[in-house]
Design goal:
It is a single chain. About 40% of the residues lie in helices and about 20% in strands. It is α/β, with parallel strands linked by helices and about 1000 residues long. Helix 7 links the parallel strand 7 and strand 8. Strands 3-4-2-1-7-8-9 form a 7-stranded parallel sheet, with helices on both faces. It contains 28 helices and 34 strands.
């Protein structure tokens, strides 16, 4: 291997780890798959798409330079095995898409279940599905839209078998951005819903059978072999930055690629500290899941500070250099036009308005001015439009400004209408919008230093087009224009004031000016130079034409059949009405009424003329603004216009040929009036007829509109119901998956429990019989089967149908237990002498209802035999004790007598003496001098190896009389070596 192939980057691109062995012959194929994809192919499928995907993926050429992303409708929580299935059909690696995965040539990625997938800068981004969002149910549209925006002409959208309309909007976006769309023929698709919806958009390039789609895709990719730009594996922080950039661009149409990366990163880290996220990944997750945080980040990125009178040096330069020159400029306009770019909350715009209004007042000049203030922050513009600020914000303004242009109330300063009406605020993105034309002064604070060099140059080109001849550009102190830019001349380095010395004649639009350069070769650059040259030649030709028309062409206008004026030529101003306010381009608004009627009449005459267009014209003499002129209206043919175009030429009538004779003029006037009256009568009749037709048309339109409205409401209702049904079906599907999983778990638990019970029945030898509420047998254990002589087929039969060896009506006993909610327990003896313990208890369900009964039979025959043997033994012992001459006692741990064979020492009857009766304290029968010795010796029995001892004690028989007894004591211990009782055997001695 070479050093390059041993690097981690090369290993990642080849898709191999250091432990994998790469054969020499396979090295070329592996490295080919690691190349950057020339095109990215998005494949959308739904129901019935598995078979189609298998066939499609199996036909991918081994040497393809495309990367593939499969978008399917997968239920959340469903673990798809499609990657394993597809992997068996192709040499290419098929895997579930991972966050930040780079789509390389030959790679095949699949959308994870329950997720949304997008692509940005060639890397895949995974988003969580939110059921409240409409795109959660259209993941194919969602991915195709991002694919179109990211890859443009390198995007290929493929739609195969599936139901519904998902993908239709996506293919529109791909086609709109220059990509290609391939659709499976609906006739060959197992489910034709998605292919038919894609074909119905008319945004497809190819409709083909499934076996031909791979070949068609390869053909599209071979037309342009230049690969996408290589995106090297980036750090986690860089991927985080890309994901946030994509989210903000997608949601707010704010492209952060124009901003300096350091500025964006600092503001992102600021928000990260504010919300308390420890890592970039945590902040991305937080911003993605919290819409308010994404909005706060966007506001942080577009936020710019704005203060009143924040640039005193700049305002001084305006007074000295700009405002005087604006009065002396040689232009026809008498209104000063100013554009404040990035105005934020409006303080800078109002400051310039105050300064200019104050300067004009001091000069005694009533010149009008207009300020256009723009920004992309709508919240800031709302503040600016209100023109209300805290009073302390204007404290540093000159007192004369505060007096003339502000009014104060409730600790707030209100900008007076004198200035407020001259400032127009609007949302405008200077990076993508069309610039304002014929601007005398552009003020752009706080913006240029935030942008990359490329975006900065593009904005300067827009300013160059926007500024009028010798217009001015004012920026903040910490910003500057590169010296190599020859279009702006610096007037004051301190104030950053520039004059535009080379205004642009044309502007090709923000999209082309600010768009990233093409990835083409030298050929594309040559074509760009040729295109620029053509633009320059076209501009030059247009300027020459306008100059020639202005000096050498008769006063003329070009207007359409709808009487809308398109062009003016020559000295036409002499024939126009004086106007003010908003400019209109209608014939009736710019010409006197008689002239407008004449032009309309001549146009109608030309329209009814049957001659060719070249000869079709009409003329008439007319008094226009006190001049006698000849009006000639000629129809002209313009291929680029869909409307008819007419040229009206104003030719002054020679005074020698038409002397200023009042009678002649009067006669001409009478003729003109007659013509006008005729025209008025004709127009009146046409107007009446038009009104009647209009009323009929309006009635028909209203009726049709009402029908369409009702149909639209029904369609809308149906669409909402279908959408709701779709969501409900999706929800039910997910619930079924959950219920199925729970049922599987319950089945497993019940199987284990059943096995446990069966083993318990087999080992315990306890007869158990379950009966339902109808006293029918439900289940029984082996012992119950033996006792009741049951077979498996007896399940379901009433228990009263069976005869037993017991003298008991089991059904009656069960019925009594169920009715009285009691428990029956007793001993039974069979006719064969077998003894059993029977217990019958109600069978209670979870809702505490009686659902039957449980019978438990325990074989107690061996227990009863043991009990009888024990009783016999006890009787024998009692017989021996009663006839024994010795005294036998049993004492508890406290010395109390619990049992005895004699109650006295002399052997008399118990009635005659109760010395050793049950319950008597043995130590109290001993004389006082022997008690402590007896207690001590008995306590030491626990420590004795034999637990036995011999004592001679004196007992009190009657008052003042004693009897000596020799005792043998033994301690009885339990299994834990704890004292259970004492046994004492005593033999009285003669006195």
């Amino acid at each position: 291997m070479t050093a390059d192939t041993e690097s981690p980057l090369a290993a990642e691109r080849m898709g191999a780890t250091s432990r994998e062995k790469i054969e020499p012959g396979a090295l070329k194929a592996v490295s080919t798959q690691a190349e950057t994809a020339s095109h990215i192919v998005g494949i959308g499928s739904s129901a019935g798409g598995v078979e189609s995907l298998v066939e499609l993926i199996s036909r991918i050429p081994p040497d393809t330079r495309c990367g593939y992303v499969i978008i399917q409708h997968l239920s959340p929580g469903f673990e798809s095995v499609l990657p394993e299935i597809l992997s068996r059909q192709t040499r290419h690696k098929v895997e579930v898409a991972a966050e930040g995965a780079l789509v390389t040539a030959g790679s095949v990625h699949m959308i994870p279940p329950g997720k949304l997938l997008t692509i940005f800068r060639g890397r895949l981004i995974i988003e969580e599905r939110k059921e409240s969002d409409s795109h959660s149910f259209f993941p194919i549209d969602y991915f195709f839209t991002s694919l179109a925006k990211d890859c443009h002409k390198r995007a290929i959208a493929v739609i195969i078998s599936g139901t519904g309309t998902d993908g239709a909007e996506g293919v529109r976006q791909v086609k709109k951005n220059g990509g290609h769309v391939v659709v499976q023929s609906p006739d060959t698709a197992r489910f034709s819903g998605m292919p038919r919806a894609a074909v119905a958009t008319n945004s497809f390039d190819i409709v083909a059978d499934l076996e031909d789609i791979s070949q068609k895709v390869s053909g599209i990719a071979s037309e342009d072999t230049s690969p996408l730009p290589l995106v090297s594996p980036s750090s986690t922080s860089a991927r985080v930055f890309d994901k946030l950039t994509f989210a903000i661009k997608n949601q707010f149409s704010l492209d952060l690629d124009f901003y300096q990366e350091g500025v964006v990163r600092r503001r992102i880290h600021k928000r990260k500290r504010i919300v308390g996220c420890k890592s970039d990944v945590d902040y991305v997750r937080h911003a993605s899941e919290t819409p308010t945080e994404l909005l706060a980040l966007r506001d942080e990125l577009v936020m710019r500070t704005s203060h009143f009178h924040s640039f005193p040096d700049a305002l001084e330069a305006l007074h000295e250099l700009v405002f005087p020159n604006l009065l002396n400029r040689e232009v026809d306009r008498r209104t000063i036009r100013i554009w404040v770019v990035g105005c934020s909350t409006g303080e800078d715009a109002y400051s310039i308005g105050f300064a200019l209004a104050h300067w004009l007042t001091t000069q005694g000049n009533a010149l009008e001015f207009k300020i256009f203030a723009t920004d992309i922050d709508e919240k800031a513009l709302k503040i600016a439009s209100r023109a209300v600020y805290p009073e302390h914000n204007v404290d540093h303004l000159p007192a004369e400004w505060q007096k003339n242009y502000l009014r104060f109330a409730d600790d707030h300063a209100f900008v007076k209408s004198e200035i407020r009406d001259r400032v127009t605020f609007a949302t405008h993105n200077v990076m993508s919008g069309t610039p304002f034309p014929k601007i005398d002064l552009i003020f752009c604070p706080h913006l240029i230093h935030l942008l990359k060099a490329k975006a900065r140059n593009s904005i300067l080109k827009a300013f160059q087009f926007s500024l009028a001849h010798r217009g001015y550009l004012l920026i903040s102190k910490n910003e500057s224009i590169p010296r190599k830019n020859q279009n702006f001349h610096a007037l004051s380095d301190d104030a950053s004031l520039y004059r535009c010395v080379n205004p642009a004649r044309s502007f090709s639009g923000a999209g082309s000016v600010l768009a990233p350069p093409s990835r083409g070769t030298v050929t594309s650059r040559v074509e760009g130079l040729i295109s620029d040259r053509r633009v320059t030649e076209s501009t030059l030709a247009m300027e020459l034409y306008e100059t020639i028309a202005r000096f050498h062409m008769a006063p003329s206008v070009v207007f359409t059949e709808s009487l809308e004026i398109k062009f003016y030529f020559g000295a036409i101003r002499d024939y126009l009405l004086p106007f003010s306010g908003r400019i209109s381009h209608g014939v009736s608004q710019v010409f006197p009424s008689s002239t407008a009627h004449t032009l309309e009449n001549l146009m109608r005459q030309v329209n009814t003329d049957t001659r060719s267009i070249k000869e079709r014209h009409a003329s008439q003499q007319e008094l226009v603004q006190g001049r006698l002129v000849k009006l000639v209206v000629t129809e002209i043919s313009v291929s680029a216009s869909s409307e008819k175009m007419f040229l009206a030429t104003f030719t002054p009538v020679d005074s020698a040929a038409h002397p200023s004779d009042p009678s002649a003029i009067s006669q001409a006037k009478i003729s003109e009036i007659q013509t006008l009256n005729e025209e008025i009568q004709r127009l009146t009749a046409e107007l009446v007829s038009s009104r009647e037709e209009k009323m009929r048309a309006i009635g028909q339109l209203e009726s049709s509109n009402e029908q369409l409205r009702m149909a639209n409401e029904e369609l809308q209702t149906g669409s909402e119901e279908l959408q709701s049904t779709n969501e409900e079906l999706q929800s039910v599907n997910e619930e079924l998956y959950t219920v199925n999983a729970e049922c599987q778990l319950r089945i497993t638990e019940l199987s284990e429990m059943n096995n446990d019970m069966q083993n318990f029945y087999d080992v315990s030898e306890i007869g158990t019989l379950f009966v339902d509420k109808d006293y029918c047998i439900r289940k029984f254990s082996p012992l119950a089967q033996k006792v009741f002589k049951l077979i498996p087929d007896d399940i379901g039969r009433p228990i009263g149908h069976f005869s037993t060896d017991f003298d008991l009506d089991f059904q009656a006993a069960i019925q009594r237990v169920c009715e009285e909610f009691t428990t029956f327990q007793g001993e039974l003896t069979s006719r064969h002498g077998a003894d059993y313990l029977l217990r019958i208890a109600p069978y209670r369900s979870d809702d505490h209802r009686i659902r039957g009964a449980v019978l438990v039979l325990i074989d107690v025959g061996s227990l009863k035999q043991a009990k009888r043997a024990l009783d016999n033994t006890n009787e024998d012992l009692l017989f021996v004790q009663k006839r024994c001459s010795d005294i036998v006692l049993q004492l508890d741990g406290d010395g109390k007598i619990t049992a005895s064979n004699r109650h006295d020492i002399s052997g008399g009857a118990p009635s005659q003496s109760n010395l050793f009766a049950k319950g008597v304290d043995f130590f109290q029968t001993i004389v006082a001098s022997d008690r402590s010795r007896a207690r001590r010796r008995m306590q030491n029995l626990l420590l004795s190896p034999t637990h036995e001892c011999r004592l001679r004690l004196h007992h009190i028989t009657v008052p003042n009389s004693q009897k000596r007894v020799v005792w043998h004591f033994r301690a009885q211990l339990d299994d834990q070596k704890n004292l259970r009782s004492y046994v004492a055997v005593g033999k009285p001695e003669d006195s």
